[in-house]
Amino acid sequence: MKKIITRFSPSPTGELHIGNLRTAIFSWAFSKKNMGLFLIRIDDTNENTCSDLYRNKILEILKIFKIGFNEIFNQKNRKRFYIKYARLLFLKNKAYFKKGALFLRVQKNDIIRICDRVRKFIYVSTNNIDDFVLLRRNSMATYNFSNIVDDNNKKITHIFRGEEHINNTFRQTLLIKILKLERPEYIHLPLILDIEGRKVSKKDKTLSISDILNRGILRKSLLNYIINNGWRNKNIEVLEIKEFISKFRINLINKSPSRYDIKKLLWYNRNHISMIPTRKVKNYIIRNLNLRKFSVKIYSFLISRSSTLKDIDKNIRYFSDLKYNIRKPDEISGFLIYKIKNNNSFIKIKPSFIEKISEVFGVEKNYVYEKLNLYFFGKSKQVPNVIEFANASIDIIRNNVLLI
User: Which of 159, 160, 98, 100 minimizes the C-alpha distance to 130?
Assistant: First the structure.
């Protein structure tokens, strides 16, 4: 039986986005499941647009997601292989030079067929394919030509790529046919669209893997989201990528495009944050708050209100930065603050108490809440409910309320 060999071929012209990472994960998982090899090919034939900075960032992302590989190579170092195959095409009169570049001579009235594992058979007439460049003026191969040369040289058996490459696959299949090379199997993955319904792009920095992780999304959360994005076996809580290998099936890949859903991603993230061991959160709280004793209420408060790691950092500040001086409090605020300073039972107040205060002073309940939040947190909106906060941190809130 032929050894399975797959590859991931990022172009270092920008950062990886979720579509790129999904391709890498699926290709890697398939090779591992079949005890094959997984290669990394850096598509850097256009040196004017490629950068070592992006190359290193791409490799760092693969490392973060524990995607190992058996070999890595750069296309810019393989010029001699491309020229060798280009010479064969030229000598067979299948290619010609024009303005210093080498073009493939496309024979018309022929049919190119792709057998795709997701979409089955796809056809195109060569009448719809124009002659295209194989070698640029600097003798460096173009994308389509370098692809078929390297895939043949490295004996790639299965190619995972986004469906936006189907037109490229037709051109590559035509080259494979002319050169009589062995044809790999193709698996075209469905598009991932942004919130506007457009294909995700490297130009959109908010959809880059680096940016998503920097916003406090856990690696495991993003992994699970990507795995289930475009896969019919929905909502499998895969904790590690190795667990995905045993579940992966090509026939479960969807044909239809999916949409990048930040709410769904945050749902995954909340679930995984809630699974962080209490010990880790405890050490973090003690280290950052200088507290000798760990409060389960503080832990519950942080976890219940946090969708990202940045949310945890933001919410934890409420326990360490609560040092507001209340100058000239109005009647309602003065009464509430007095109760907090002098009555333990008030700390455990229920919403019914706020209702009673609103009735006595003839104001809306939200007004009472906003007053408390304003004086404790410096804001009346987008902060923890002060009662919920007080229940989690009795001593901290009492010791930091100062009346002047």
Answer: 98
pLDDT tens, 38-75? 999 999 998 888 999 999 999 999 999 999 999 999 99
Closest CA to 307 of 341, 279, 343, 269: 269
Query: Topology of domain 78-189, per CATH?
Result: Rossmann fold (3.40.50)
| Separate counts of helices (H) and strands (E) for the chain | 18, 14
Alpha carbon distance 104, 90 (integer Å) = 9
For 239, half-sphere exposure in the C-beta direction (CA atoms, 13 angstrom radius) is 5
SS3 230: coil
Rounded-to-integer distance, Cα 238 and Cα 44, Å: 34
What confidence tens digit (pLDDT) does each residue in 355-393 have?
Answer: 777 777 787 877 777 766 665 555 555 555 555 555 555
Fold of 5-75+190-271: Rossmann fold (3.40.50)
- Average the pLDDT over each of 87-91, 340-344, 355-359 and give the range with the smallest value: 340-344
**DSSP per position, 53-103:** HHHHHHHHHHHHTT---SEEEEGGG-HHHHHHHHHHHHHTTSEEEETTEEE
Pairing of strands 95-98, 101-104: antiparallel
pLDDT at residue 265, as a whole number: 93
The answer to whether 217 and 61 have CB atoms below 8 angstroms apart is no
- Digit-coded pLDDT (tens) for 2-51: 899 999 999 999 999 999 999 999 999 999 999 999 999 999 998 888 99
What residues does 141 pair with on adjacent strands? Answer: 135
Higher pLDDT, 362 or 404: 362
pLDDT tens sequence across 265-276: 999 999 888 888
DSSP run (H or E) holding 347: helix 344-347
Q: Where in the chain is the domain with CATH 3.40.50.620?
A: 5-75+190-271, 78-189
